[in-house]
Structure prediction request, 66 residues.
Amino acid sequence: MRDYADVTQLVVLANLEGLNAEFIRQKLSQQNQLIKLNKIAIIQMRSLLHNPSIKKLSEIKNERTL
Prediction:
């Protein structure tokens, strides 16, 4: 999965891994972990995809790959 993810997805994935470790420490059920992580992933992806700075970074990356 990491091999095909873009930078935004990798950032969200890294954040989710840290949060999941905390949820495990708190002994949340796997079902509750999944529900929370899914909601957080959606919020983070929307936030990052609509962030002008992230859009600019993507444009710079695309220019370098041409």
